Fold:
Amino acid sequence: MSQNNQPSRYDDSNIFAKMLNGDIPYHKVYEDDKTLAFMDIMPQAKGHVLVIPKQKAIDLADLEPEYAAAVLMTAKKVMQAQRQVFEREGIIQMQLNGSQAGQTVFHYHVHLIPSSIHELGRHAVTQADQGELADLAQQLAAVIAG
Ligand code: 5GP
Structure:
């Protein structure tokens, strides 16, 4: 570990690795062979989704091109579903590299947040209601599935 708990190498015990291993529960929005999308447990706005690659990457520096492409294509699907479900055009795509930038989970992920940069809630602070997250995940998943 270096400063601020940032690992120098990929740590298999990070929370998203545990999700990919099926060790902890999450509210799934979408999954394919290279990516997984699920509801953020401490959303910065209603409908905040995370997209992760099924690759052991800490941040953008480690991400392989095929996974970078796959994450973006999944992000696009999720964003389009968010636009439909939340009836708003504005969706923030955000991604933090390193603890100095505020990254707290060291498995690469893209945030998709139905909000405005001027209204964004605090980062990873308030836990959402699990029932509401399950309902939102179901709505988004249904739109993506068509
Ligand atoms: P980062 O700070 O690394 O960019 O973002 C990590 C995100 O993961 C935060 O938005 C935080 O709310 C979310 N998060 C942290 N722990 C969990 C968890 O156990 N489950 C889910 N679904 N999201 C989490």
User: Anything to note?
Assistant: The pocket of guanosine-5'-monophosphate is lined by residues 15, 26, 38-42, 96, 102-105, 124 (CB under 6 Å). The helical segments are 15-20, 65-86, 130-145. The chain has a mean pLDDT of 96. Residues 15-145 form a domain with the HIT family, subunit A fold (CATH 3.30.428.10).
